[in-house]
From TrEMBL:
The keyword Isomerase applies. GO terms for molecular function: peptidyl-prolyl cis-trans isomerase activity. This is Peptidylprolyl isomerase. It comes from Chloroflexus aggregans. The keyword Nucleotidyltransferase does not apply. Keywords: Isomerase, Rotamase. Residues 38-127 form the PpiC domain. Transmembrane segments: none annotated. PANTHER family: PEPTIDYL-PROLYL CIS-TRANS ISOMERASE HP_0175-RELATED, PEPTIDYLPROLYL ISOMERASE. Pfam families: Rotamase_3 (PF13616).
Length: 190
């Protein structure tokens, strides 16, 4: 804060104003995230080179082995291995088609083998939700289809909310202000 104040020659009041603006922006971004929705699946996986290794892991799981432990010790996907293979909530478009199809159609809590160009995955779908809201703005922002999800779910929600408040008299739009002209906070999808 002190560095920013010195660097910008800002007064303490200006620094507080800047913080207030940033706080309001954060609130708006969280409102966007929580009112933007997409079909999502929560899955975990263990990635190996060949089908024999995948079959062996599947057999171990069926015998009671711990998925997270096997992911940590056997998966080639080092990024998810440290989280027990957990991929978090994923939307359509996040993964290659074969993997995406699997996480949106396989039965829940039943590990199965899926082959992709990356190798063989032992996949377990933990949960699936249609039109699930995003937990945070960052979770939304990093999605390839963020602009599409925003346009299809947030914009209609916002427009309906705005109409309700305008009709009730609780909201009046200033002359010359077009809320639809505001830029969206991530690239639009083609």
């Amino acid at each position: 804060v002190v560095f920013n104040r010195i660097a910008n020659n800002a007064t303490p009041a200006e620094v507080l104003d800047q913080r207030s603006v940033l706080a309001r922006e954060q609130i708006v971004l969280e409102i966007i995230a929580r009112n933007t929705r997409a079909d999502m699946a929560h899955a975990r996986h263990i990635l190996v080179n060949d089908e024999a290794a995948a079959q062996a892991i599947l057999a171990e799981l069926q015998s009671g082995a711990d998925f997270a432990t096997l992911a940590a010790t056997r998966s080639r996907d080092t990024a998810s291995a440290t989280n027990g293979g957990d991929l978090g909530w994923a939307t359509r478009g996040d993964f290659v088609p074969a993997f995406e199809e699997a996480i949106f159609t396989l039965p829940l809590n039943t590990p199965q083998i899926v082959q992709t160009d990356f190798g063989f995955h032992v996949v377990e779908v933990l949960d699936r939700e249609l039109q699930r809201p995003f937990d945070t703005f960052e979770q939304l922002r990093v999605r390839q289809n963020a602009g599409q999800f925003y346009q299809e779910t947030f914009v209609p929600w916002y427009e309906e909310l705005r109409r309700e408040f305008e009709l009730s008299g609780e909201l009046q739009i200033a002359d010359g202000f077009d809320p639809n002209a505001l830029p969206i906070p991530f690239p639009e999808t083609p």
